[in-house]
Amino acid sequence: MSPPNTATDSQSRSPLQRPALLGIAIPAYKRESLLARLLDSINTELPIVVSDNGGYLSDTFKARYPAVKFLSGPEVTVLKNWNRAASSLDSEWIVMPGDDDLYYPDSFATMLEHLQAHPEADIAFFGHNIIDEQDKVTSSWQPSGALLGAPAGFEQIRLGAPARPPSIAFRSALFRKLGGFNETFAVTAGDNHFYQRASLIGNTLFVPTIVSGYRVWNSGSTMSTIASRAWMQEIDFWCSNVQEFALNHSNYQYRNSLRDEIYTANLRAGIGALKSRGQYLGAWRHLLTNRYPYKASLLSQAKLLAHLLLPRRK
After folding, report:
1. What CA–CA distance (Å, rounded) separates 301 from 293?
2. pLDDT over 80 (residue 171)
3. Which residues contact 183 (CB under 8 A, 6 or more apart)?
4. pTM for this prediction
5. What's the pLDDT tens digit per position in 226-273?
6. Measured CA distances, 243 to 4, 63, 218, 248, 258 (Å)
7. Which class does domain 8-216 fall in?
8. In this model, does residue 13 exceed pLDDT 60?
């Protein structure tokens, strides 16, 4: 299947009408001090939109950043705010950091260089650092460099995109084509759902350079919801929806075994979170109250059961 012609809008304009190559969409919620650090780390004149979810940012704060477009509106769900931010940019490409993430001095020069060098790309994955509350780097991820046509890019992220939002750029036209982020999701998978569909129909660029720090909080919402039934239900919805999308829009054979591999990985993560809090009975309950992934590989099933039965490593 041919990739989408996502560059048509900008190519049809005169040079004076063409939008910026890359724009930065920031969904924000209350955290002025962290948002200030993010904005201060963006060393570029590219257009920036901040969607102030609920209108909590002060006028004094906004006056510090006259070049930034601030949107204020009623408090909405996380993914509605993501869509509000991304939809308000007039740029060929969009990158969307969280309001607590950070960029490095050469981040945007790197991104612009590779986006300009690969006009045939539709979505681009750069590397990232995972940082904690004190900005300490706890882990890193860098892809192997490649430009893959659809749906080969999906194969690289079939279990879920290992990249993180501040290091993922996507074409605005592709964002519109896919209808943005699916606002049905409440606790997980909304970003993976978008990135996987994008890589099924678009050309996917992988760049082995770290461009952002993605912050993970030890007490964040993920740790409190990853062992919930709602989390596992959304994993199933994500996988079944992408499976249907692959059937209707690409030649990728999305098998039920892949769904169960993803489901198994998330069961393990939930069990691990419960055991880390000493909730061993809760770990058993989590396994028994969700469906069992029979179509995952025998190795994955064995790892799941071992993760449940073996003592937690200190």
Report:
1. 8
2. yes
3. 77, 79, 80, 83, 190
4. 0.90
5. 999 999 999 999 999 999 999 999 999 999 999 999 999 999 999 999
6. 19, 46, 32, 9, 9
7. alpha beta
8. no
Which two structure tokens, joined as six digits, stand for 267? Answer: 């069961």
H-helix segments, the chain: 8-11, 32-41, 59-63, 78-87, 107-117, 152-156, 172-177, 190-201, 221-225, 229-249, 256-276, 280-288, 298-309
Is 61 within 8 Å of 84 (Cβ atoms)?
Answer: no
CB atoms within 10 A of CB 233: 15
User: Please, what is the average pLDDT of the chain?
Assistant: 92
Closest CA to 146 of 107, 173, 175, 120: 120
Q: What gap in Å lies between CA 249 and CA 197, rounded to an integer? A: 9
Least confident of 3-12, 128-137, 264-273: 3-12
Q: Answer for the pair 205, 147: CB distance below 8 angstroms, yes or no.
A: yes
pLDDT surpassing 70 at residue 7: no
Q: Which two tokens stand for residue 106?
A: 């050469």
Minimal CA–CA distance to 76: which of 95, 97, 52, 57? 52
Rounded (10°) angle between helices 256-276 and 280-288: 160
